Amino acid sequence: MLGTESNMAEESSGAIRSVERAAALIQAIADAGKSGSRLTDLALATGLSKTTVHRLLGTLTKLGWVELDESRSAYVLGLPLVGIGMAASDRHGFTSLAAPHLNRLAELTSDTVYLTVKTGSQAVCVDRVVGTYPIRAITTQIGERRMLGSCAGSLALLAWAEPDEVDRLLTSIPTTQLSGSALPDPAALPALIQRARTAGFTQAPTTLVPGAEGIGVPIIGGSGTAIAAFSVEAVSPRLSEPRRTHVVEWMKREATVFAQRLQQLDGASNEGTVRKLLQPGTA
User: Signal peptide span per the entry (predicted)?
Assistant: First the structure.
């Protein structure tokens, strides 16, 4: 009897490890972006042996969760995962709560508006509304990640983080690179952060669309730090004065109202609130 229980415990532990390893692989492929990641790079990213990575990729490929781009020998996320992500997106409450504010900003500015949240040293776009202005600066897709400090929205998340966390993040940024994502200059970030906190908003050129730039404002939580950010991106002349002042005022107003709404839902109103609202089935 004891032997049977021991075997069951070992099998359960092994199954949990397999799930954790598969999840780490999926995350590593997601981090690699559209270009995907080769088996060797996945082994380095996850710390798993090539044999283990190859075995897990075989299972994930059979499920359709991962696909092999044979032209580049790189693995990319499969369509079933897109469906799973959309199912979660349809059910969580965070973007639903933010939607009226994004739509209003897109209507007021006629430009593309983004909602971004922080995860580690990266910023993730969780929603976007494309404006009606015919010349558009669309730099980020929903679900894409950018390094903190590399664009207006992610810079707002960084600038309004806890001081100790800012120091830690500034140290970690140079060591991490996302596919297709510009790496911010760590030496320039302290001055940009100080300027943003003084002005109450961020302004930065986009690195993916020449001639475009963005403005970002933080959505402040209960502790006074950013739990999310709104940003607007457009061709540079549309974000110069005197129009910039109006755009910043609109963004700050919507960010304040949204922050107040989040605080009504959860008095703490912190990053945990955002994570909870981004989980499936919590709306």
Answer: none
Distance set, CA 140 to CA 11, 148, 204, 222 (Å): 42, 14, 15, 28
Alpha carbon 272 to chain centroid, angstroms: 15
**Which CATH architecture best describes the domain 92-277?**
2-Layer Sandwich (3.30)
The second-level CATH assignment, the architecture, of 2-78 is: Orthogonal Bundle (1.10)
Per-residue pLDDT of the chain (283 residues; tens, 9 = 90+): 545 555 545 556 667 888 999 999 998 888 777 778 899 999 998 999 999 999 999 999 988 889 888 888 899 888 677 656 655 554 447 888 899 999 999 999 999 999 999 887 788 899 999 999 888 777 778 888 888 888 899 999 999 998 888 888 777 665 444 444 455 677 788 889 999 999 999 998 765 566 789 999 999 998 899 999 999 999 889 999 999 999 999 999 999 999 998 888 777 787 877 877 776 433 3
